[in-house]
Protein backbone atom coordinates (compact mmCIF):
# COMPACT_ATOMS: atom_id res chain seq x y z
CA UNK A 1 0.00 0.00 0.00
CA UNK A 2 1.38 3.38 -0.87
CA UNK A 3 1.32 6.51 1.23
CA UNK A 4 1.66 10.19 0.48
CA UNK A 5 4.74 12.02 1.63
CA UNK A 6 5.27 15.75 1.54
CA UNK A 7 8.65 17.34 0.84
CA UNK A 8 10.20 20.71 0.22
CA UNK A 9 13.19 21.28 -2.04
CA UNK A 10 15.20 24.39 -1.19
CA UNK A 11 17.26 25.63 -4.12
CA UNK A 12 19.96 28.26 -3.62
CA UNK A 13 22.65 29.75 -5.83
CA UNK A 14 25.93 27.90 -5.32
CA UNK A 15 28.68 29.61 -3.36
CA UNK A 16 30.67 31.82 -5.69
CA UNK A 17 27.81 32.34 -8.16
CA UNK A 18 26.89 35.99 -8.42
CA UNK A 19 23.37 36.47 -7.05
CA UNK A 20 22.12 39.87 -8.21
CA UNK A 21 18.79 39.37 -6.42
CA UNK A 22 20.55 38.76 -3.12
CA UNK A 23 22.71 41.81 -3.72
CA UNK A 24 19.66 43.96 -4.47
CA UNK A 25 17.98 42.82 -1.26
CA UNK A 26 21.17 43.54 0.67
CA UNK A 27 21.47 47.00 -0.82
CA UNK A 28 17.91 47.82 0.27
CA UNK A 29 18.66 47.14 3.95
CA UNK A 30 20.05 50.60 4.76
CA UNK A 31 16.69 52.04 3.64
CA UNK A 32 15.10 50.05 6.48
CA UNK A 33 17.67 51.33 8.91
CA UNK A 34 19.09 47.81 9.22
CA UNK A 35 22.79 47.12 9.52
CA UNK A 36 24.84 44.04 10.26
CA UNK A 37 23.05 41.79 7.75
CA UNK A 38 25.17 40.38 4.94
CA UNK A 39 25.62 37.46 2.53
CA UNK A 40 21.97 37.52 1.40
CA UNK A 41 21.26 34.75 -1.12
CA UNK A 42 17.89 34.46 -2.82
CA UNK A 43 16.74 31.00 -3.86
CA UNK A 44 13.56 29.09 -4.51
CA UNK A 45 11.48 26.63 -2.51
CA UNK A 46 9.39 23.95 -4.16
CA UNK A 47 6.94 21.89 -2.09
CA UNK A 48 5.51 18.66 -3.44
CA UNK A 49 3.57 15.53 -2.44
CA UNK A 50 4.80 12.12 -3.53
CA UNK A 51 2.93 8.86 -3.50
CA UNK A 52 5.29 5.97 -2.84
CA UNK A 53 5.57 2.64 -1.04
CA UNK A 54 7.76 4.07 1.68
CA UNK A 55 9.56 7.17 2.84
CA UNK A 56 12.91 6.15 1.34
CA UNK A 57 11.43 5.62 -2.12
CA UNK A 58 9.65 8.95 -1.94
CA UNK A 59 12.82 10.73 -0.83
CA UNK A 60 14.84 9.09 -3.64
CA UNK A 61 12.36 10.36 -6.23
CA UNK A 62 12.43 13.87 -4.80
CA UNK A 63 16.25 13.86 -4.81
CA UNK A 64 16.18 12.86 -8.47
CA UNK A 65 13.69 15.58 -9.40
CA UNK A 66 15.69 18.12 -7.43
CA UNK A 67 18.86 17.31 -9.36
CA UNK A 68 17.35 16.91 -12.83
CA UNK A 69 14.58 19.49 -12.95
CA UNK A 70 14.19 21.73 -9.91
CA UNK A 71 17.82 22.86 -9.81
CA UNK A 72 20.57 23.39 -12.35
CA UNK A 73 23.60 21.67 -10.78
CA UNK A 74 25.98 23.98 -12.63
CA UNK A 75 24.80 27.02 -10.70
CA UNK A 76 22.51 25.87 -7.89
CA UNK A 77 22.62 23.67 -4.80
CA UNK A 78 19.57 21.98 -3.32
CA UNK A 79 18.49 20.54 -0.01
CA UNK A 80 15.55 18.17 0.42
CA UNK A 81 13.45 18.62 3.53
CA UNK A 82 10.67 16.29 4.64
CA UNK A 83 7.59 18.14 5.80
CA UNK A 84 5.60 16.66 8.64
CA UNK A 85 1.88 16.21 8.87
CA UNK A 86 1.49 19.95 9.34
CA UNK A 87 2.58 20.52 5.76
CA UNK A 88 1.68 23.57 3.76
CA UNK A 89 -1.00 21.63 1.88
CA UNK A 90 -3.99 23.92 1.91
CA UNK A 91 -7.20 22.04 2.59
CA UNK A 92 -10.27 22.74 0.54
CA UNK A 93 -12.27 25.39 2.36
CA UNK A 94 -15.40 24.04 4.04
CA UNK A 95 -18.62 25.00 2.34
CA UNK B 1 15.70 22.62 -51.63
CA UNK B 2 17.40 22.88 -48.26
CA UNK B 3 14.92 22.61 -45.42
CA UNK B 4 15.55 24.30 -42.07
CA UNK B 5 13.23 23.78 -39.11
CA UNK B 6 12.19 26.24 -36.42
CA UNK B 7 10.84 24.79 -33.17
CA UNK B 8 7.71 26.44 -31.81
CA UNK B 9 7.32 26.15 -28.04
CA UNK B 10 4.33 27.64 -26.24
CA UNK B 11 5.69 31.11 -25.54
CA UNK B 12 8.15 31.30 -28.45
CA UNK B 13 8.03 34.71 -30.08
CA UNK B 14 11.00 34.70 -32.45
CA UNK B 15 9.67 31.78 -34.51
CA UNK B 16 7.99 33.81 -37.26
CA UNK B 17 11.05 36.01 -37.74
CA UNK B 18 13.32 32.97 -37.87
CA UNK B 19 11.07 31.23 -40.42
CA UNK B 20 11.03 34.42 -42.51
CA UNK B 21 14.82 34.81 -42.39
CA UNK B 22 15.32 31.20 -43.50
CA UNK B 23 13.11 31.95 -46.50
CA UNK B 24 15.19 35.04 -47.29
CA UNK B 25 18.25 32.79 -47.41
CA UNK B 26 16.55 30.64 -50.05
CA UNK B 27 15.66 27.62 -47.94
CA UNK B 28 12.31 26.09 -47.11
CA UNK B 29 11.35 27.07 -43.56
CA UNK B 30 9.68 24.24 -41.64
CA UNK B 31 7.75 24.93 -38.43
CA UNK B 32 8.27 22.17 -35.85
CA UNK B 33 5.67 21.92 -33.07
CA UNK B 34 7.04 21.28 -29.57
CA UNK B 35 4.95 18.13 -29.17
CA UNK B 36 6.35 16.61 -32.33
CA UNK B 37 8.81 13.78 -31.80
CA UNK B 38 10.05 14.11 -35.41
CA UNK B 39 12.12 16.83 -37.05
CA UNK B 40 10.49 16.16 -40.43
CA UNK B 41 13.85 15.44 -42.09
CA UNK B 42 15.18 19.00 -41.91
CA UNK B 43 18.86 19.75 -42.48
CA UNK B 44 19.20 22.15 -39.54
CA UNK B 45 17.11 23.34 -36.61
CA UNK B 46 16.72 26.75 -35.00
CA UNK B 47 15.45 27.08 -31.43
CA UNK B 48 13.98 30.58 -31.47
CA UNK B 49 13.72 33.32 -28.91
CA UNK B 50 10.80 33.90 -26.60
CA UNK B 51 9.65 32.63 -23.23
CA UNK B 52 9.12 28.90 -23.74
CA UNK B 53 6.60 27.55 -21.24
CA UNK B 54 6.57 30.98 -19.61
CA UNK B 55 10.21 30.57 -18.52
CA UNK B 56 8.77 29.07 -15.32
CA UNK B 57 11.20 27.54 -12.83
CA UNK B 58 14.26 28.56 -14.90
CA UNK B 59 14.41 29.89 -18.44
CA UNK B 60 14.50 26.94 -20.83
CA UNK B 61 14.20 24.09 -18.35
CA UNK B 62 10.60 23.01 -19.03
CA UNK B 63 11.20 23.20 -22.78
CA UNK B 64 14.17 20.92 -22.35
CA UNK B 65 11.87 18.00 -21.49
CA UNK B 66 9.46 18.47 -24.44
CA UNK B 67 9.16 15.70 -27.07
CA UNK B 68 10.75 17.82 -29.78
CA UNK B 69 13.85 18.35 -27.64
CA UNK B 70 14.42 14.60 -27.43
CA UNK B 71 14.45 14.62 -31.24
CA UNK B 72 16.74 17.68 -31.30
CA UNK B 73 19.18 15.99 -28.90
CA UNK B 74 19.27 12.86 -31.07
CA UNK B 75 19.73 15.01 -34.19
CA UNK B 76 22.59 16.91 -32.54
CA UNK B 77 24.24 13.66 -31.44
CA UNK B 78 24.33 12.59 -35.10
CA UNK B 79 26.05 15.84 -36.06
CA UNK B 80 22.89 17.74 -37.06
CA UNK B 81 23.18 21.55 -37.03
CA UNK B 82 21.31 23.29 -34.21
CA UNK B 83 21.27 27.03 -33.53
CA UNK B 84 19.68 28.35 -30.34
CA UNK B 85 18.86 32.05 -30.28
CA UNK B 86 18.26 33.82 -26.95
CA UNK B 87 15.65 31.62 -25.20
CA UNK B 88 16.78 28.87 -27.59
CA UNK B 89 20.31 29.28 -26.18
CA UNK B 90 18.86 28.96 -22.66
CA UNK B 91 17.06 25.75 -23.69
CA UNK B 92 20.28 24.30 -25.18
CA UNK B 93 22.22 25.17 -22.02
CA UNK B 94 19.58 23.60 -19.75
CA UNK B 95 19.62 20.50 -21.96
CA UNK B 96 23.40 20.30 -21.68
CA UNK B 97 23.75 20.53 -25.47
CA UNK B 98 26.04 23.56 -25.08
CA UNK B 99 28.24 24.26 -22.04
CA UNK B 100 27.44 26.75 -19.30
CA UNK B 101 24.34 28.48 -17.98
CA UNK B 102 22.57 31.81 -18.45
CA UNK B 103 22.07 33.70 -15.20
CA UNK B 104 19.93 36.71 -14.38
CA UNK B 105 21.38 39.86 -15.98
CA UNK B 106 23.88 41.45 -13.64
CA UNK B 107 21.79 44.64 -13.35
CA UNK B 108 18.58 42.58 -12.85
CA UNK B 109 16.85 44.48 -15.64
CA UNK B 110 15.37 42.99 -18.78
CA UNK B 111 17.47 44.42 -21.62
CA UNK B 112 16.02 45.22 -25.03
CA UNK B 113 18.52 47.09 -27.20
CA UNK B 114 21.28 46.71 -29.77
CA UNK B 115 24.66 45.27 -28.86
CA UNK B 116 27.85 44.69 -30.81
CA UNK B 117 29.43 41.25 -30.97
CA UNK B 118 32.41 39.82 -32.85
CA UNK B 119 32.59 36.28 -34.18
CA UNK B 120 35.64 34.54 -32.74
CA UNK B 121 35.69 32.09 -35.64
CA UNK B 122 34.64 32.24 -39.28
CA UNK B 123 35.13 28.51 -39.97
CA UNK B 124 31.93 27.26 -38.32
CA UNK B 125 28.53 26.32 -39.84
CA UNK B 126 27.12 29.38 -38.07
CA UNK B 127 29.63 32.03 -39.17
CA UNK B 128 31.08 30.79 -42.47
CA UNK B 129 29.24 33.36 -44.63
CA UNK B 130 30.59 36.30 -42.60
CA UNK B 131 33.27 38.19 -44.51
CA UNK B 132 35.29 39.47 -41.57
CA UNK B 133 35.67 39.21 -37.82
CA UNK B 134 34.47 42.79 -37.52
CA UNK B 135 31.73 43.75 -35.05
CA UNK B 136 28.10 42.96 -35.88
CA UNK B 137 25.25 44.98 -34.45
CA UNK B 138 22.25 42.91 -33.37
CA UNK B 139 19.44 43.37 -30.87
CA UNK B 140 19.20 41.58 -27.52
CA UNK B 141 15.96 41.08 -25.58
CA UNK B 142 16.49 39.06 -22.42
CA UNK B 143 16.38 39.02 -18.63
CA UNK B 144 18.68 36.03 -18.18
CA UNK B 145 21.66 36.42 -20.49
CA UNK B 146 24.64 36.53 -18.17
CA UNK B 147 26.81 33.70 -19.43
CA UNK B 148 28.31 31.60 -16.68
CA UNK B 149 30.63 28.62 -16.56
CA UNK B 150 33.23 27.74 -13.93
CA UNK B 151 36.77 29.06 -14.55
CA UNK B 152 38.14 25.69 -15.68
CA UNK B 153 35.33 25.33 -18.23
CA UNK B 154 35.86 28.90 -19.46
CA UNK B 155 39.57 28.18 -19.98
CA UNK B 156 38.72 24.99 -21.82
CA UNK B 157 36.19 26.78 -24.07
CA UNK B 158 38.78 29.41 -24.99
CA UNK B 159 41.44 26.78 -25.62
CA UNK B 160 39.21 24.60 -27.80
CA UNK B 161 37.72 27.43 -29.84
CA UNK B 162 34.21 27.03 -28.43
CA UNK B 163 33.67 30.75 -27.81
CA UNK B 164 31.68 31.76 -30.88
CA UNK B 165 30.70 35.38 -30.16
CA UNK B 166 31.88 38.00 -27.70
CA UNK B 167 30.34 41.32 -26.73
CA UNK B 168 32.51 44.26 -27.78
CA UNK B 169 32.25 48.04 -27.90
CA UNK B 170 30.69 49.29 -31.16
CA UNK B 171 34.16 50.04 -32.53
CA UNK B 172 35.25 46.46 -31.88
CA UNK B 173 37.36 47.07 -28.80
CA UNK B 174 37.08 44.42 -26.05
CA UNK B 175 34.17 44.96 -23.65
CA UNK B 176 36.38 44.35 -20.58
CA UNK B 177 34.46 45.99 -17.75
CA UNK B 178 32.42 48.23 -20.09
CA UNK B 179 28.83 47.75 -18.91
CA UNK B 180 27.43 49.33 -22.06
CA UNK B 181 29.28 46.82 -24.24
CA UNK B 182 28.60 43.74 -22.06
CA UNK B 183 25.30 44.77 -20.51
CA UNK B 184 24.31 41.45 -18.91
CA UNK B 185 27.69 40.88 -17.24
CA UNK B 186 28.57 37.70 -19.14
CA UNK B 187 31.82 36.12 -18.01
CA UNK B 188 34.64 36.88 -20.46
CA UNK B 189 32.01 38.83 -22.43
CA UNK B 190 30.77 35.59 -24.01
CA UNK B 191 27.67 36.13 -26.16
CA UNK B 192 27.65 32.75 -27.91
CA UNK B 193 29.24 29.32 -27.59
CA UNK B 194 29.67 26.09 -29.53
CA UNK B 195 29.43 22.53 -28.28
CA UNK B 196 32.63 20.46 -28.39
CA UNK B 197 31.76 18.91 -31.77
CA UNK B 198 31.03 22.32 -33.32
CA UNK B 199 27.55 21.46 -34.66
CA UNK B 200 25.45 23.10 -31.93
CA UNK B 201 25.62 26.81 -31.17
CA UNK B 202 23.78 29.19 -28.88
CA UNK B 203 23.85 32.98 -28.78
CA UNK B 204 21.92 35.67 -26.96
CA UNK B 205 21.61 38.35 -29.71
CA UNK B 206 18.91 37.97 -32.36
CA UNK B 207 20.30 37.63 -35.91
CA UNK B 208 16.78 36.97 -37.28
CA UNK B 209 15.65 40.40 -36.07
CA UNK B 210 18.50 42.03 -37.98
CA UNK B 211 18.32 40.06 -41.20
CA UNK B 212 16.83 42.41 -43.77
CA UNK B 213 17.47 45.99 -44.92
CA UNK B 214 13.80 46.89 -44.43
CA UNK B 215 14.30 46.24 -40.70
CA UNK B 216 17.03 48.86 -40.69
CA UNK B 217 19.72 46.31 -40.00
CA UNK B 218 20.83 43.26 -41.98
CA UNK B 219 24.02 42.57 -40.05
CA UNK B 220 22.65 39.35 -38.58
CA UNK B 221 21.74 37.83 -41.94
CA UNK B 222 25.21 36.30 -42.36
CA UNK B 223 24.45 33.88 -39.53
CA UNK B 224 21.23 32.68 -41.16
CA UNK B 225 22.99 32.49 -44.55
CA UNK B 226 25.77 30.42 -42.94
CA UNK B 227 23.35 27.95 -41.36
CA UNK B 228 21.32 27.51 -44.56
CA UNK B 229 24.46 26.99 -46.69
CA UNK B 230 25.94 24.52 -44.20
CA UNK B 231 22.65 22.63 -43.93
CA UNK B 232 22.46 22.38 -47.73
CA UNK B 233 25.95 20.92 -47.94
CA UNK B 234 25.26 18.52 -45.12
CA UNK B 235 22.02 17.35 -46.73
CA UNK B 236 23.86 16.70 -50.01
CA UNK B 237 26.56 14.73 -48.19
CA UNK B 238 24.31 12.72 -45.88
CA UNK B 239 21.07 12.55 -47.84
CA UNK B 240 20.23 8.89 -47.14
CA UNK B 241 20.68 9.37 -43.39
CA UNK B 242 18.33 12.33 -43.38
CA UNK B 243 15.85 10.46 -45.52
CA UNK B 244 15.86 7.66 -43.01
CA UNK B 245 15.39 10.09 -40.15
CA UNK B 246 12.45 11.58 -42.02
CA UNK B 247 10.89 8.21 -42.76
Throw out a few tags for this protein:
heterodimer; A: 95 residues; alpha+beta; Mth169, Chain: A; three-stranded antiparallel beta sheet; 29% strand; elongated; B: 247 residues; alpha/beta; Rossmann fold; nine-stranded mixed beta sheet; two-stranded antiparallel sheet; 11 strands; globular; disordered C terminus
Unreliable runs of chain A, pLDDT <50, ≥5 residues?
none
Q: Specify the number of helices of chain A.
A: 2
Shape descriptor of chain A reads elongated
Beta fraction of the residues of chain B?
15-25%
* Subunit arrangement of the protein: heterodimer
N- and C-termini, Cα separation of chain A: 31 Å
Roughly how many Å apart are the termini of chain B?
Answer: 18 Å
Biggest β-sheet description of chain B: 9 strands, mixed
Instruction: Indicate the radius of gyration of chain A in whole angstroms.
Output: 17 Å
Number of individual domains of chain A: 1
CATH topology of chain B: Rossmann fold
Radius of gyration of chain B: 16 Å
CATH class of chain B: Alpha Beta
Amino acid sequence: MSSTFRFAVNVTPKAGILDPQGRAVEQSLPHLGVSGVSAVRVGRRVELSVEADDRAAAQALVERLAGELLSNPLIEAFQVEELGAASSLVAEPAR
Amino acid sequence: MTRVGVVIFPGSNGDDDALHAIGLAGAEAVPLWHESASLDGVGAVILPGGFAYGDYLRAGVIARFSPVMRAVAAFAAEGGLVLGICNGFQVLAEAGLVPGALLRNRGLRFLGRDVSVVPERLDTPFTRALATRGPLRMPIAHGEGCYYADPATLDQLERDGQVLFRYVAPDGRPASGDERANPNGSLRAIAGVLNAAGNVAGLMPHPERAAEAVLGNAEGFGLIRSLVDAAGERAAATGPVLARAAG
